Every structure is written in structure tokens, then in C-alpha cells.
TrEMBL record:
Keywords annotated in UniProt: Antibiotic biosynthesis, Iron, Metal-binding, Oxidoreductase
Listed name of the protein: 2OG-Fe(II) oxygenase
Pathway: Antibiotic biosynthesis
InterPro entries: DIOX_N (IPR026992), IPNS-like_FE2OG_OXY (IPR044861), IPNS-like_sf (IPR027443), Iron_ascorbate_oxido_reductase (IPR050231), Oxoglu/Fe-dep_dioxygenase_dom (IPR005123)
SUPFAM superfamilies (alphabetical): Clavaminate synthase-like
Species, as recorded: Amycolatopsis oliviviridis
Family: Belongs to the iron/ascorbate-dependent oxidoreductase family.
Domain Fe2OG dioxygenase: 169-277
Length: 330
């Protein structure tokens, strides 16, 4: 992946922190994506997650639909192919995405939950190991996101804990996407994607993906570029709230998942952990990212209000009017 640099997170604990923070800053200024190794997630945890999710998606559709939420706008449980469209989060109208998904998230919060971000997860009866496998993987991805937040603080010239103050009770979501083209499937509709072009919504995304083509990012040159992660590596990208924090010093990069180019069956899985901050935190331009010559580009926004508008747009297939940091890009 020549466009997306690789960084070793293990050097944060036992290496040159300043060098790592500078490398991350340069990459996020240029493209908004990283590939990370040395993340410390045990191989067994990744393998268990992959095996359990493969077993779930292999079930008949009717069996999987038992784990669908009663409320279509809810960001929990199973969503069948053709029922979501991520481009709607940018206010776009497109054909539904050619993917199915299973979503879990944090369930408990001390205090109010006005947006329903901490509702109970929906667990299927089969496979039984899905709950333990996804819960263990989610905890590891959360740990990685916390390490990244520490690196971001140094890269942005902020005191330790400055960004952490926005994540005391963060919205945390793990979304497993499954893309499968079966023999005899019809051709996609014009403009139809496995996941439509979108930016992520919150602070940072930690992604495990099968080393299979499909993910594309919108590069600084205005073209779409393929991103295939190395075996065992994770892909990291930023969300809209970080773009607002940094006044577009770092960008939340447009990305999509395209249908396979060749004929015949095709399968791909991705597992995205979204670390999206506190619902009651006020996100506005950071002090190190503004000046009289570079005033804030975005108005302040409450984290929960922003996330709710983005999530419901994709789930209900209605264009969102939430902040769009990609408005100047095609």
C-alpha cells in the first residue's frame, strides 16, 4: 500500500515517541489513513472473531433476521443486504449497499442515554461463541484506539489527557460487514457499491479486513486507490469529529467498498471498531489547530447529535443533514 503508510504501534511503549507521532501526523495530513502493525491484538483473538463471524453469516437469512432490531434506525444486531446505504450519511441518494452486517456496541452508561447509543446488544442463539469472540475482540480494538488517542495528543502538541477528556463514556461500536456475491447473482445497479462512498463519523476507526481487494480511498490526487491490508495488520482512519477538531489539518477521508471486478463468486469481510467520543461532549476546533490566519471552519457540535444524524441516515435510507467534512470533494 504505497499511498497508505505503515506504522509500528509497539514503538509507542518502547521506542521513539516523538518520531512515531511525527510519522502519524504526516500521514494523517496527507491521506487520513494508516496501516498499523505491532498493535498487540493476539492472533488467537483475531482468529476466534473471524471463525465466529463466518459461522454466523453462513446461516440462512431467515435465521440471521431473528437478530435484526425492531427499530430500523437502531444501530444494533443484523442488517440484511440491501437495507442500508452509507452514502446517505453524506446526504447522497444511492442504490442500497450490497452488504450485510452485524453490529454490537457499549451497553452501559452512568447517566442519561438520549440517543439510544447504549441499548442492549442483540445476540443470536447460534453460533454460541459469537458473543465471547466479538466481546473479546472489541475490548482489544478499544485498547488500540486509546493508544492512538495518546499518539494524536503528542502529534497535535496537546497535553496528555486533553483528547481523553472527550472519551470518558464514549460511544463504541463494532460493525462486522460481510460481502458475498453468489453464483448467478445479478449485476449491481448503476452506482451500487458494497459500501457506498462515505466518511466515518466520530474520532477514529480501527479496521480489520480480509486481505481481499474492495476497499478504496479517495486520495489527494482526486482518484480512487485500492487498499489491501497486510495479513494481521489493521487499517486506521479518522472520522468527521477529528477533522473538525483539527480544522482539516487531518481529514476524514472518503472511502468505499466496490463490487468485485471479475466474474464468479466472491467474499470479503471487514470488522470496524468506531471510537466516537462522548455523546454530551462539545467538539470544536482544538487550540493548536487554529490561528487568526486559520480560523475554525466548522461550528461546534455535540458528539451525540452529530452521530445520531449520521447513523440514522444510513439505516433509514434518508439523506442526512449532519456535518459533512467531504463537501468539497467528489
Amino acid at each position: 500500500m504505497t499511498l497508505v503508510p505503515t506504522v509500528d504501534l509497539s514503538t509507542w511503549e518502547n521506542g521513539d515517541r516523538a518520531k512515531l507521532a511525527h510519522t502519524v501526523d504526516e500521514a494523517l495530513r496527507r491521506v487520513g489513513f494508516l496501516q498499523v502493525v505491532g498493535h498487540g491484538i493476539p492472533r488467537a483473538t483475531i482468529d476466534d472473531m473471524c471463525e465466529a463471524t463466518a459461522a454466523f453469516f453462513a446461516l440462512p437469512v431467515g435465521e440471521k433476521l431473528r437478530s435484526a432490531p425492531a427499530d430500523r434506525a437502531s444501530d444494533r444486531g443484523y442488517a440484511a443486504e440491501g437495507t442500508e446505504g452509507l452514502a446517505y450519511s453524506l446526504g447522497e441518494t444511492t442504490p442500497p449497499d450490497l452488504s450485510e452486517s452485524f453490529v454490537i456496541g457499549a451497553e452501559h452508561i452512568d447517566g442519561e442515554d438520549p440517543y439510544g447509543f447504549f441499548v442492549p446488544n442483540i445476540w443470536p442463539g447460534s453460533p454460541e461463541r459469537l458473543r465471547s469472540a466479538l466481546t473479546e475482540y472489541e475490548a482489544e480494538a478499544h485498547r488500540v484506539a486509546r493508544v492512538l488517542l495518546e499518539i494524536f495528543e503528542q502529534a497535535l502538541g496537546l497535553p496528555g489527557g486533553h483528547l481523553g477528556a472527550y472519551t470518558r463514556h464514549p460511544t463504541r461500536t463494532l460493525r462486522v460487514n460481510h460481502f458475498e456475491r453468489r453464483a448467478g447473482a445479478p449485476e449491481p445497479l448503476p452506482g451500487q457499491m458494497r459500501l457506498g462512498a462515505h466518511t466515518d463519523y466520530g474520532i477514529v476507526t480501527v479496521l480489520y479486513a480480509d486481505p481481499v481487494p474492495g476497499l478504496q480511498i479517495h486520495g489527494p490526487d482526486g482518484a480512487w486507490h485500492d487498499v489491501v491490508p497486510d495479513e494481521g495488520a489493521l487499517v486506521v482512519n479518522l472520522g468527521d469529529l477529528t477533522a473538525q477538531w483539527t480544522n482539516d489539518r487531518w481529514r476524514s477521508t472518503l472511502h468505499r467498498v466496490v463490487p468485485p471486478s471479475g466474474p464468479g463468486p466472491s467474499r470479503r469481510r471487514s470488522v470496524a471498531f468506531f471510537f466516537d467520543g462522548d455523546h454530551d461532549a462539545r467538539f470544536e476546533c482544538l487550540p493548536t489547530c487554529r490561528s487568526p490566519e486559520n480560523p475554525p471552519k466548522y461550528p461546534p457540535v455535540l458528539g451525540g447529535e452529530h452521530l445520531y444524524a449520521k447513523i440514522t441516515g444510513g439505516r433509514t435510507l434518508e439523506p442526512s443533514d449532519a456535518m459533512n467534512t467531504a463537501a468539497d470533494r467528489n
